[in-house]
Amino acid sequence: MSDRKYRQRGYMDNDREPQRPKPQSKPPDREGPRSPRMMAFGETVKCNACGAKAPTNITLTSTCPKCNADFHTCRQCTYFDPSARFECRKPITVKIVNKNARNTCELFAPRTVVERETSSGPPTDARQAFAKLFKK
Question: Could you tell me the residue range of the domain that residue 52 belongs to?
Answer without folding.
Answer: 39-115
